[in-house]
Amino acid sequence: GEICVGDERSPIKAGQAALVPILQERMEAAEKVLYFRQDLSSRPADAVLLKNATGLTLEKGPVTVFEEAACLGEALLSETLRPDMRDIIPYALETSVEITPEVKYDREPAFKATLADGVLTITSARIQETKYRFKNRAKKDHVLYLDHPKAAGFDLKAPEKAEETLPHHYRFKAALKAGEESELVVRER
Q1: Minimal CA–CA distance to 32: which of 4, 69, 66?
Q2: CA separation for the pair 154, 165 (Å, rounded)
């Protein structure tokens, strides 16, 4: 349609603001998921996993999430999405799912000893284990994406592989069954 700003046909008066869509293009349906990153919130968020299928670059900034005619919430595109890139866009807190992380540290027995110039060096490994407990009180299943911060100097041992590896986080994917409890153990050495 035609957008007219600044003439007699415009309903926008001086000193007022308007939300004017600058891109109206159909995109692949975004998958509704839950998203959890502990440094952002102690609760998971309702989110959409969005792939930019427009062929255009989407700059970071505010986003309004709709399902049919209903507004689900406000969100922020935190990074620029080039064509075919994907991102998780959280838009509301999900109160029916509880996530409790529990971290413990351990040390493996010494696995190497060297003696050089009268100095005995004993090498062992430190283990960091984070157990995420999930409690889904909702009456529906959820897909959860969980961003776990990488521990500096540690390597991921379990699970064997992350769904995605980001610069400062591992991203894991978990299925949360309706009304059930489950857990994910992340072990780094």
Answers
A1: 66
A2: 14
